Amino acid sequence: MGKFALADAELSKVMICKRCKARNRVGATKCRHCGYPYLRPKRKDIKVKK
User: Fold this and answer.
1) Of these four, 7, 27, 39, 46, which has the most CB atoms within 10 Å of its CB?
2) CA nearest 13: which of 35, 44, 38?
3) pLDDT tens digits along 1-50
4) Can you tell me the distance from the alpha carbon of 34 to that of 29, in angstroms, rounded to the nearest whole number?
5) What's phi and psi for 3, nearest 5 deg?
6) pTM of the complete model
């Protein structure tokens, strides 16, 4: 997590399209960009490069 917990919570309230990687609202049933119906939640943890 980052420095600001409140900001991290707001940024993670999005769904990501599995086809085009567009950001969508939480309640979306399909992608706003390409119309693909399969969305995933945004990752909560931050990946660190090694």
Assistant:
1) 39
2) 44
3) 568 888 888 888 999 999 999 999 999 999 999 999 999 999 887 667 77
4) 12
5) -75, -30
6) 0.76
